Amino acid sequence: MTSRNPITIEVLETLDAIDRRGSYAKASEELNKATSAVSYAVQKLEEQLDIALFQRQGRRSVLTPAGQLILQEGRKILLATSHLAITAKEVATGWEPKIRIAAESTLNSPVLFEVLAHFLTKHENVEIDLSESVLNGGWEALDQDRVELLVGVPGPVPLQKGFRAIPIGDRDLIPVIAGSHKHAKLALDAQALAEVLPKLRRIITHDTSQLEVARSEGLGGAGQSFYVQNMDQKIEAILAGIGIGHLPRKRIQQHLDSGELKELKLASVSNHEYFMAWKISNKGKGLQALTQLLAAAKW
Predict the structure, then answer these.
(1) Buried b (16+ CB within 10 A) or exposed e, 148-177
(2) How far apart are CA 47 and CA 207, in angstroms?
(3) I need a surface site. Which of 120, 246, 253, 299 has the fewest CB within 10 A?
(4) Residue 60 forms beta bridges with which residues?
(5) Per-residue pLDDT tens over the stretch 67-86
(6) Domains of the chain and CATH, by start
């Protein structure tokens, strides 16, 4: 008779919690178990496999190389079982328990949150998981099933991927400089601006794509670059006078009105359409209801 596999879902969840929280005590709080029960589960698995899974480094419990391997592969199993549970519930009811959304960094966020609030008043049992994407990152996340819905993603729409994409507006991006920047006085002088432009540092938001070729948009040139993770950081960096860049007008109108930011007199950026997109194979009722609301919104 084949012996039972000692690596269970429960013990993988235990290892995951210890690794993320850094100690048995904190993991036990998250798992709602006694610390002794968490410690025993690890000790039992170590004895059954005849290997060490954790080692002490100061106050933290750190995975050994063998433990890292088990947890790395184990997290794939945990993700698969979670997806299985969600899929089973969706098949039974037609309604997804969770919808994962990637919103493009340039999106007019207030409109999105208004739509989500309206959606949740009618479908309060659906959980929303919202993340931010930049350029190719959103398309990649949809392709790899890390999200079910993209909102505000820029074109072009990838072909032969089974995506349904609906245009929901144009990106009104404008080149700006801080009013406090030493070259701010040249903002409306196209000729003088063209001379100093190559020397001005560009503020660039990282493309969130992990596997595909990343891309960037906006001001070209051979000047220095300053990279940030999201649109909020880009706005703050430009306000601080670190450099220049394109920002969505609706996100910065108050700063333009106050003079904290000045629009640069440059050739206009190509404001392509942005889209809402999902996989055609996704038939969830929650996704259908949400995309209808988003399509009807005034972006």
Answers:
(1) bbbbbbbeebbeeeebebeebbebebbbbb
(2) 45
(3) 253
(4) 57
(5) 999 999 999 999 889 878 87
(6) 9-90 (1.10.10.10), 96-170+273-296 (3.40.190.10), 173-263 (3.40.190.290)
* Distances 21 to 16, 18, 101, 196 between C-alpha atoms, Å: 9, 5, 26, 50
Per-residue pLDDT of 194-232, as tens digits, reads: 888 888 999 998 888 766 545 555 555 556 899 998 889
